[in-house]
Amino acid sequence: MKNKKVIFQDWGLVDYKEAWDKQEVLFADTVALKTHIRNRIITSEGDEYDEDEETPNYLVFCEHPHVYTLGKSGKPEHLLLDEKGLREKNATYYAINRGGDITYHGPGQIVSYPILDLDNFFTDIHLYLRTLEEAVILTMAQYGLTGERYPGYTGVWLDADNENARKICALGVRCSRWVTMHGLAFNVNTDLSYFNNIVPCGIDDKAVTSMQKELGKEVDIEDVKKNLKHHISVLFNMEIL
Q1: Is the confidence at residue 47, as pLDDT, over 50?
Q2: Catalytic residue set
Q3: Contacts 24+ apart (CB under 8 A), 236-240
């Protein structure tokens, strides 16, 4: 199987709403092109249809200023701050169109938005989530950390089999016509105090952690990005552009 071409973009530190809007444009353009291609397949005659025409795929990395986002299945009361409290924390809040409950994004956290047409890879949303988790697990292993899955929950955890379970990476995606958006949030040098203002992912009895906390030192986030990008590309058989 040939590698699938994927356009990589690092948006740096970007306002959440700005990044969401940019995602929506890429997502909508991909869905529209996919519909156009399929219509041409149905109506094409002779050589009018290019069989090699494909939808684009994107892998976006970024960081966000302090922000809380609530997924479609989340409960607003899981945000423990009112508007005044948000201002005091210099944070914003958005109810958005991904799955999952509430989470936090902020500086020192790698946020990855794969905007992929899964028809170019595999049409299995559970495998998609498990593959993203595996990329994080493999990345953590390079720093001596053992990432694990927690049965019944998405994301990546440490000590998932006991009372010390703590989450280091959250996942929340949207998928329509097998095109994905939103993605994962991986705590590297994240200010974990901001998680005290929410019930993270709707889970009130588990801790949240970061690579910095686990290793006892600040981590080179650009190095982590490089390794995470590598593992995503290998697991998805991507040719990164």
Answers
A1: no
A2: 201
A3: 236/4, 236/6, 236/116, 236/121, 236/131, 237/1, 237/3, 237/4, 237/121, 238/3, 238/4, 238/5, 238/6, 238/57, 238/59, 239/3, 239/4, 239/5, 239/6, 240/6, 240/8, 240/59
Please state which of the four CATH numbers 3.20.20.10, 3.30.930.10, 3.20.20.150, 1.20.120.1560 is assigned to the domain occupying 4-240.
3.30.930.10
What pLDDT, in 10s, does the model give residues 130-173?
Answer: 999 999 999 999 999 999 999 989 999 999 988 999 999 999 99
